[in-house]
Amino acid sequence: MIRRGRAEGWLRERIEGLPRWANFNGIRFAGIKIGPLPGFEERGSTVISSSKLVSGEAGALLTVPKELILSRQNIELFAKSDHHLRELLQSLDDFGRTTRGAVLIFLLLQATICCPDVSNVGVHNPLTEYIKFLPDELLPTFWTEEEKDLLAGTTLEPAVRAKLNSLLREFESVRTATAGIRWCAQHWWDEDVGLVTFDDWMRLDAMYRSRALEFPGVGDAMVPGIDMANHASGEATAALYETDGDGNGVLLLRDGKEIHPGGEVTITYGDEKGACESIFSYGFLEDSLDSAKVMFLDLKIPDDDPLAPAKAYVNNAAPGFRLFDKDGRIEWESDFIWLVIINEEDGLDFKVKQTIDGKREVQCFWNEQELGGVLKLHEQLKETAFWDVFQLRATVLVQNRVEEQIDALRATGDPVTTATVRYGPQELASKLRALELSMLQKAMKTLDNEKAKLLDSETVQRYLGLIESEDEGAEQEEVDFT
């Protein structure tokens, strides 16, 4: 149902209609326009300066009326005058009250309103036409199986697999929740003439995931025009976005910036985002990127851990650890790992408590005090005399997992590609593999150094029995004296 424009001519015609739509709906342009960057037409449309822009002289480059901001709050306002939208949101319960759920179902309804085969469904509003201007994004969820195989050994491989499973669950949940609505059953889900497929749901997800920005006072939202701006990090970021005193979305030139006519006006999607997330959410990598920046590696509680079931039950942290590049040094952080490396002999304990309504729940205790959550465990361990020992266990566990990931990347090498693999996915997968392997190798060196320092710790050496404790020495001297 959601039309995908592959023909270059149709795409050009579609985007050329955006200024007319924007002007009609009160969007104001000042010294900029939206279209393909000269010399880089294959990259699609972006925000371009139509006159010389100088910070301090230029005001708001783009002003978007607050009622055109596609946010959860505005969708709820639209629902007051559109009973079809209102019954959709109500049918989805908690999912319909999230920003993501509200935006996706709103976009699906707008696509339905635009469909020539459907009549008397939904209320036409200014944003109904906007969905026609959103280009298709070649995110990894749309890669072919052969192209996804290129990700073997990278952190993007499990992320894409998990996302597809999550999208399928969402799609089935939405279908089940709305199947009882008469017009949905007819136009969306009918076996013979139903218009909505899983591919449509993936396209809606791609629209939202690649274009949602966090606006002050609004939260995650899609803002027409501003969400056409491309990303650039660091000093290359030309403009910033925010809301003005009236709640309108505005695009402003950064201090010290000057852009000549025909130059690109870029924003940042988040400088701290790693290579994996850039491909996952936006389908690109910056040309200047020389580090994977951030990697998340999953961890499992060992099967031979007698406390494994109880640990899994109480855990509320992400099951893994995050590697990140901090000024050229690779560091890691995790709440989950501290739960994995401690045991009953250290002071960890679990008890079953019966609640008032007769149900049972598992409680976690550290040194006979109720812990109150895994996220507090790290601070508790730092206060103990065996902190160096716990750090050593965690470091060894992280190092083993990093080595395992390196082996996985090396085992697959650079997968052989065929003529059916597109250039974009091939190039992105190859660069991601190189960036992640380099970061993992740097992490191994850092972890080796950390492990060596911890092994020199007096606390660790006493724990390992490499040196005698004072009590043991005193006892031995007393025995010898006797």
UniProtKB/TrEMBL annotation:
CDD domains: SET_LSMT (cd10527)
An annotated Gene Ontology molecular function: protein-lysine N-methyltransferase activity
Name of the protein in question: SET domain-containing protein
Domain of life of the source: Eukaryota
One GO cellular component, as annotated: nucleus
Stored InterPro entries: SET_dom_sf, SETD3_SETD6_MTase
